[in-house]
Design brief:
This protein is α/β, with parallel strands linked by helices and 252 residues long. It has helices at residues 42-49, 72-79, 89-92, 99-110, 124-134, 151-163, 181-198, 209-215, 243-251, and strands spanning 2-13, 16-27, 31-35, 57-62, 65-66, 82-85, 169-173, 201-205, 218-223, 226-232. It binds adenosine-5'-triphosphate (ATP). Adenosine-5'-triphosphate binds at residues 13, 18, 36, 38-44.
């Protein structure tokens, strides 16, 4: 069974069709990479999948359940199964909240529907420290504010927050784009570790074909709102690739 199934998704802004019949499946345990030039609709797709935007037509099925037009109340118990990590961790964290408050927020929101497998909750302090430990940060970070952290540390915090309710799927929308090369590498390694330890599936959106190649089992290529190519990662250099994929490969 597919964890996520997207069928003929269409999204229009004004008169501009930004997503054109986008269809794909993502299997449990899989990392599906998504690449394509700036403006091709990658972030719009991720916002539609998260139901931050309403689609014009098409279906989004999570665990075989249609979610594209569910009410907020009906979506709530399903919504805990998928989380998103954005490109800019500074914008994703409330500057007025200490890290511990940001980390507790999703748990407190969903606690009635949660039965945790990997984390335990005996106290707020212990839970926050377990989360920080999972993303390679010291427990003392809990008492700090976002502006007291580096970009790499902030992205680790947003990852800790995303995994705190043990989702099955995490949408990674260019999670390393705002970081320096060394921090990018360590976040990629962390993503690999978290996937293995927490049995996660990823939709990994990135401009960085090298990073996508490293983390993903399959790669999907978008151009001007359409999926133009989809293949197993080891087939990236095969002759039958779409000309646009070949163009992307030649840049890297
Ligand atoms: N809220 C909006 N209102 C109107 N147009 C929008 C809106 N959001 C995105 N667009 C347009 O939709 C198209 C796709 O944008 P989107 O941000 O999804 O691309 P992207 O592939 O994620 O780009 P990047 O890699 O630069 O983040 C662009 O032409 C953009 O201008």
């Amino acid at each position: 069974m597919s964890l996520l199934s997207v069928q003929n998704l269409t999204k229009t802004y004004g008169g501009q069709q930004v997503l054109k019949n986008v269809s794909f499946d993502l299997k449990k345990g899989e990392c599906l990479g998504l690449v394509g030039e700036s403006g091709c609709g990658k972030s719009t797709l991720s916002r539609c999948l998260m139901r931050l935007e309403q689609v014009n037509s098409g279906k989004i099925l999570f665990r075989n359940q249609e979610i594209q037009s569910l009410s907020s109340r009906k979506l709530m118990p399903i919504r805990k199964g998928f989380q998103i990590v954005f490109q800019n961790p500074t914008a994703a964290l409330n500057p007025k909240l200490k890290i511990k408050a940001s980390l507790l927020d999703p748990y407190l929101q969903y606690r009635k529907q949660l039965s945790l497998r990997y984390f335990s909750f005996s106290s707020k302090e212990q839970f926050v420290s377990e989360l920080l430990n999972m993303v390679g940060l010291p427990a003392s970070i809990a008492e700090r504010y976002p502006h007291e952290l580096s970009g790499g540390q902030k992205q680790r915090v947003t990852l800790a927050r995303a995994i705190s309710i043990e989702p099955e799927l995490v949408i990674l929308d260019e999670p390393t784009a705002s970081l320096d090369v060394i921090s990018q590498r360590s976040i990629l390694h962390l993503l690999e570790d978290l996937r293995d330890q927490l049995d996660l599936s990823y939709l990994f959106i990135s401009h960085d074909l090298t990073a996508v190649k490293e983390l993903s089992q399959r790669i999907m290529v978008m151009k001007q709102g359409e999926v133009v190519d989809m293949f197993r990662t080891e087939e990236l250099f095969h002759a039958q690739r779409n000309p646009y994929t070949k163009e992307l490969v030649s840049i890297f």
